[in-house]
Design a protein that fits this description.
By secondary structure, this protein is an all-alpha fold. The protein has one domain. The protein contains 2 helices and no strands. The chain has helices at about 5-20, 30-35. Helix 1 (about 5-20) crosses helix 2.
Length: about 45
């Protein structure tokens, strides 16, 4: 279970972004991108 810790971090961050209204659909969001660079949802707020 080497990936579980990273998965937990990503899930926490994604749920936090979801609360902030930055992303809406967790399944269709680039979790790696969010985890590494903290990008906003490209569909809502393009950079």
């Amino acid at each position: 279970m080497s990936g579980s810790n990273r998965e937990q971090r990503i899930k926490f961050r994604v749920s936090h972004l979801k609360i902030l209204g930055i992303i809406h659909d967790v399944e269709n969001s680039d979790l790696i991108c969010i985890d590494r660079f903290q990008y906003e949802c490209s569909r809502c707020k393009p950079r």
